[in-house]
């Protein structure tokens, strides 16, 4: 059934197809399907009917309606409007073919990695994938009792897409493809933005190569994180804003801008600071050039954005007392310019290290520490701007998706900005100037709102992608064609390290994704946990117990229990959180009729207790605790009849 969303996309694309706006048609189709998927999951969840049958039938209905509408359109036009001319491609010069081939090869290799490797990063194990499994089990995305609250309050669109694939395929085989598809969408959107800002064909292709070669993007495009997904919706938002400003068709574009904005903030909270300056730019243009339509445009933009997020806002309001909930540890307490300057420097510093030059990296790190001591006169780890339990330091691992720096891209962006400033008179009244100011404002706003963390570089991915058209246009106007082509080729060659040597999903090592069993790959980033988790599940198998209660503390790995239990049983499994001591315990009534008395408990904790008293009865420890390498132990309890 996984083919149904693909078929729907193709049919909708041809339904709204415009010959002169092929790439824009792809973006609009994506936005429509993104909104449809959100509405479908939210609607079915209202009645706790998020089942395979209902999801399949919904896609079938959409496919059928699309076919009817497409046939009617063709009949009215009395001719096919969807022929593609191959003459454009046949006339392309050789260097363009080489660059396009490089883009295709890199994309296909990353897609292959995404398809073969399972989810295996920390966030995937603690909340991205577990929340999907609970939604499938509960047949609803309603909040449920959990020992790890981010499973509830984090914005969920990326997981909605994974949930859709999970239901249609009954596996996580396609979970990583959500980010990969977002990467392809970003390539389409970025080239479109570059075209709107005045880039020629080579400039548009270079912007795609700049995007697809971003190390953090390469590493994330085959994972279940959500930074590439939010980047795609932001790219859609920015494209339609730039397009509306260029054409001055504000009202006509406001609805699609609102949908893009809603999908972006429904995917990740970083969309708020990144989208705000562009939305402000859009509204300012309307107010200054077509004031009469300002209110209509604002309403057309705000209502769809609100509707997309309404379900989560309401659930969060009922549970946490506010619609937008985030952990206080991520919110800055900036009270002066020095604190803001410190946060800006520390965020920029994440992309300063250069691979294979440790002495340079050490010099940069010491220099930043000295700047804080001698000039800013503040603690570099000031808790008002730094997340708890972390300390400042530059990334040491360059091929891990949580903290990989985008060093070369960062220096190229700085070079492009410097060239732009030196040639400012040429660009003073151009749309490119306003675009750059919006990007800089986005970064400053992010630094003002978000505390620094060592793994913050992944949150910068959207900005690096949105900088691609700017860098492309500036370089294309300063350097000749040969320099641009050589730089593009160098970027593609440079990117091969991250494509082939992903720390979590490697290709060029003896134990790679092709010869390592899939079950083992779930533990690629924490292989020390595999033996303990596997042993615990084997003990449950011996007891023929597949209805399990979990007692977890903090962000311990939950998802491997789902996978290992499913691999040991052909019967349905059931996992629920027990001894929930946070506010989510009040949601138990939401899932009471889905609750099953666990035949055993799995507990990860530092303290060892012989008994557990639960609403389902008393459970007694049956085996010796399995000590875990990071902290505490894994303990198993069996129900006492």
**Helix proportion:** 55-70%
> How many discrete domains?
3
Report strand %.
5-15%
Number of separate helices:
26
Q: How would a crystallographer describe the biggest sheet?
A: 7 strands, mixed
- Give me the Rg, rounded: 25 Å
Give the overall shape. globular
- Average pLDDT, rounded to a whole number, is 92
Which class of secondary structure composition applies to the elements?
Answer: mainly alpha
From the N-terminal CA to the C-terminal CA, the straight-line distance is 42 Å
Low-confidence stretches: none
Number of strands: 7
Question: Can you offer a commentary on this structure?
Answer:
The protein has 26 helices and 7 strands. The chain is mainly alpha-helical. Strands 1, 2, 3, 4, 5, 6 and 7 form a 7-stranded mixed β-sheet that branches. Strand 4 and strand 5 (617-621) form a beta hairpin. The model has no long low-confidence stretch (mean pLDDT 92).
Task: Give a quick set of tags describing it.
mainly alpha, 3 domains, seven-stranded mixed β-sheet, 26 helices, 7 strands
Summarize the model shown.
The chain has 641 residues and is mainly α. 60% of the residues lie in helices and 5% in strands. The chain has 26 helices and seven strands.
């Amino acid at each position: 059934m996984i083919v149904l969303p693909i078929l729907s996309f193709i049919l909708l694309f041809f339904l709204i197809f415009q010959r002169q706006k092929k790439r824009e048609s792809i973006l609009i189709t994506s936005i429509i399907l993104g909104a449809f998927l959100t509405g479908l999951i939210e609607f079915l969840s209202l009645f706790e009917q998020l089942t395979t049958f209902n999801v399949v039938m919904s896609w079938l209905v959409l496919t059928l309606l699309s076919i009817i509408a497409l046939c009617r359109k063709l009949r009215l036009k009395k001719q096919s409007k969807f022929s593609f001319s191959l003459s454009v491609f046949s006339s392309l010069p050789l260097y363009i073919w080489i660059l396009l081939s490089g883009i295709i090869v890199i994309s296909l290799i990353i897609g292959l990695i995404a398809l073969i490797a399972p989810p295996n990063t920390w966030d995937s194990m603690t909340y991205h994938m577990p929340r999907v499994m609970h939604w499938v089990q509960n047949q609803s995305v309603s909040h449920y009792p959990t020992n790890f609250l981010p499973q509830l309050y984090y914005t969920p669109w990326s997981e909605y897409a994974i949930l859709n694939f999970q239901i249609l395929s009954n596996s996580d085989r396609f979970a990583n493809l959500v980010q990969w598809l977002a990467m392809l969408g970003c390539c389409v959107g970025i080239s479109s933005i570059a075209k709107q800002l005045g880039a020629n064909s080579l400039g548009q292709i270079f912007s795609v190569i700049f995007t697809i070669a971003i190390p953090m993007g390469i590493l994330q495009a085959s994972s279940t994180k959500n930074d590439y997904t939010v980047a795609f919706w932001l790219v859609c938002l920015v494209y339609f804003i730039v397009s509306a400003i260029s054409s001055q068709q504000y009202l006509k574009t406001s609805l699609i801008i609102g949908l893009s904005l809603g999908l972006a903030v429904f995917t990740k909270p970083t969309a708020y600071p990144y989208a705000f300056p562009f939305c402000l730019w859009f509204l300012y243009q309307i107010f200054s050039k077509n004031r009469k339509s300002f209110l209509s445009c604002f309403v057309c933009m705000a209502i769809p954005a609100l509707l997309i997020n309404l379900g989560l806002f309401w659930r969060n309001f009922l549970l946490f007392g506010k619609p937008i909930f985030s952990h206080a540890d991520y919110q800055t307490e900036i009270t002066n310019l020095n604190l803001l300057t410190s946060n800006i420097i520390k965020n920029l510093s994440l992309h300063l290290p250069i691979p294979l030059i440790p002495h340079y990296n050490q010099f940069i790190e010491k220099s930043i520490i000295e700047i804080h001591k001698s000039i800013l006169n503040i603690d570099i780890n000031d808790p008002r701007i730094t997340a708890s339990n972390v300390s400042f330091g530059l990334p040491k691992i360059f091929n891990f998706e949580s903290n990989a720096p985008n060093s070369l891209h960062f220096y190229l962006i700085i070079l492009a900005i410097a060239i732009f400033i030196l040639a400012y008179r040429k660009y003073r009244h151009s749309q490119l100037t306003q675009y750059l100011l919006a990007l800089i404002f986005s970064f400053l706003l992010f630094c003002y709102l978000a505390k620094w963390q060592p793994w913050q570089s992944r949150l910068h991915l959207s900005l690096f992608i949105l900088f691609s058209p700017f860098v492309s246009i500036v370089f294309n106007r300063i350097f000749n064609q040969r320099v641009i082509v050589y730089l593009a080729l160098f970027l593609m060659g440079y990117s091969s390290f991250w494509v082939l040597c992903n720390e979590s999903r490697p290709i060029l090592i003896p134990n790679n994704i092709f010869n390592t069993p899939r079950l083992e790959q779930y533990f690629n980033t924490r292989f020390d946990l595999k033996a303990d988790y596997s042993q615990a599940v084997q003990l449950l198998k011996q007891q023929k117990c597949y209805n399990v209660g979990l007692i977890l503390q903090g962000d311990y790995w939950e998802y491997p229990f789902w996978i290992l239990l499913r691999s040991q049983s052909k019967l349905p499994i059931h996992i629920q959180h027990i001894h929930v001591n946070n506010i989510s315990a009040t949601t138990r009534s939401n899932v009471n009729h889905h609750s099953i008395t666990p035949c055993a408990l799995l507990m990860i904790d530092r303290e060892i207790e012989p008994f557990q008293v639960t609403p389902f009865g008393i459970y007694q420890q049956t085996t010796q605790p399995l000590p875990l390498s990071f902290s505490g132990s894994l303990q198993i309890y069996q129900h006492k009849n």
